[in-house]
Amino acid sequence: MLNFLASRALRALFTLLLIVTAAYVVLRLTGDPAISILGLDAPAEAVAEFRKNWGLDQPIWVQYLSYLLAVVQGNLGASMLDGREASTIVIERLPATLSITIPGFVLQLLIGIPAGLFSALRQNTWIDRTIMAGSIIGFTIPSFVFGLLLVMLFAVRLHWLPSGGAETPLHLVLPVLSLGLFGGATLARFTRSAVVDVLDQPHVRAVTLRGLPRWRIVMFHVMPNAALPVVTVMGMMLGGLVAGAVVTESVFSWPGIGRLLITSVASRDLSVVQTILLMIGFAMVAANFLVDLTYGFLDPRLRRSQGADAKG
Question: What is the pTM of this model?
């Protein structure tokens, strides 16, 4: 088990290093933050002084090594706009993002897993076709279009909910509904596929012929075997929630990390952008790490194979 955890932890650290490197290089190749922040009409002396103060006059590899050393020490840099710590600015927006992503993820589970299971148990019926048609529609529509449709229906047409902002609890409803329905449609498709595959397995047909109650077959023979692919999708969705919030927060004018990322990219506030990208990368890596751990508990063969590989 220790070998299993160690191999997954090393892979997670290497992935984070790649994310940090890619984000750092790409951001510095896409434009000069000194010009973006000071403006095209800024005096050359002011631009040169700005670059010197922020270390932008050094070779990019020197900047990268300095940044990497600072990250290892827990220093994510300061905002080029107001001089505050980038981590402080991001953390201030984190509660707003979590207030829609956590309920959104719970709603995804409440919609996707029951809908996929019910569809699989009624496969090739009108119920199955209806659920899968709704799932495909929800999966294929871009998230920003889906959000705008919700605004058009519930805010513009019916006047039931506010279209944007974060002043009241009602402002939570549309962003959470957008995240929940969009992710729930994806989860329903994968859950149905996983359950249908298990239903065709010989051991499930055998216990069915033995006359076991349907609920016992589903609970103790189908769902445990269908859990692995469903857990994989859940991990991907959990890791991508913060990234998905970028679009959702823009559509509904929600003051979270997503909107902060867009404004920071536009103003070339590199430390804030890098901090947000590092947070998103860490969330996805952590989610995948949790999926790997869950795999190890759900399927002990994975732990044994890791141990055999380490001994070999």
Answer: 0.79
